[in-house]
Write a structure and sequence with these properties.
- By secondary structure, the protein is an alpha/beta fold.
- It is about 45% helix and about 25% strand.
- The protein contains 8 helices and 8 strands.
- The longest helix is centred in the last third of the chain and has 20 residues.
- The protein is globular, with a radius of gyration of 19 Å.
Length: about 250
């Protein structure tokens, strides 16, 4: 998803005040895409620490950062709840992570203690409610619905983006500024947008089958992106992706 979502994250981060020279903590860093994006914003004079509970993700992130020659980003394995840092950060950031936490407000309240006075807290989360096609492209619409339901069944909050102000408030943070963007496309330009949804479905497919949302073998993940794009083109549909919502404040 990075080639399509990173430009949105970049605009959110810049609006939030991530600037060269900052020291930034990124929680839920996964394979490192957002951390490496932040590393380009803070430059050689700044630094990024990415934290994730998955050792496999941390190992992959380290290898990818090394391959890109990024010396200003490091990754740590573990839960930020249990970590001690040498000094507070200029900013704390996260992308698509609060939606998977049992108590996101409590997490933000704890993360606040790792930010310098006047520092930035910025999070980018999704809201699936607006994902649709006009006129309806059945494969795309069904896949969006299946992805949303699977995430919810696995404990994720698929409306977290719209809930960010309430979460910030419960965490004792100042009311955030916000930005919303969504991927949209039609005709040939919709193929990469459709591919994003198809890739997500392919990733979630084992969980969909385990949860009984689809039957084993019902979805051919290998041809899904091609079939979805072909249907969108044949129907002349415009596809609209989930809302990508950023919220930020200073502490």
């Amino acid at each position: 998803q990075a080639p399509l979502i990173d430009p949105i994250s970049r605009r959110i981060l810049v609006r939030a005040g991530i600037t060269p020279g900052m020291r930034v903590l990124e929680v839920g860093s996964g394979a490192g895409d957002a951390s490496m994006l932040i590393a380009t914003l803070v430059g050689h004079g700044g630094s990024v620490v990415g934290v994730d509970r998955s050792l496999q993700a941390v190992d992959a992130a380290r290898q990818r950062a090394e391959a890109r020659g990024l010396s200003n980003v490091t990754f740590r394995h573990g839960d930020f709840h249990d970590m001690i840092f040498d000094e507070p950060f200029d900013a704390v950031a996260g992308r698509h992570v609060l939606q998977f936490l049992a108590d996101p407000a409590a997490a933000l309240a704890e993360l606040k203690s790792h930010v310098k006075p006047g520092g930035v807290i910025v999070f980018h989360e999704a809201d699936w409610q607006g994902a649709r096609s006009v006129p309806s492209a059945p494969i795309y619409d069904r896949c969006c619905g299946l992805a949303e339901r699977t995430i919810r069944e696995m404990g994720g909050d698929t409306s977290m983006g719209a809930k960010l102000p309430a979460v910030f408030e419960r965490a004792g943070l100042p009311s955030p500024s916000m930005r919303l963007e969504a991927l949209i496309g039609a005709g040939p330009s919709a193929s990469d947008r459709a591919g994003l949804v198809a890739d997500l479905v392919a990733t979630l497919l084992p969980d969909m089958e385990r949860l009984g949302l689809v039957q084993p073998g019902e979805i051919d993940a290998g041809s899904l992106a091609e079939r979805m794009a072909g249907e969108i083109l044949a129907l002349g549909s415009t596809i609209i992706g989930r809302s990508e919502i950023g919220a930020w404040t200073r502490v």
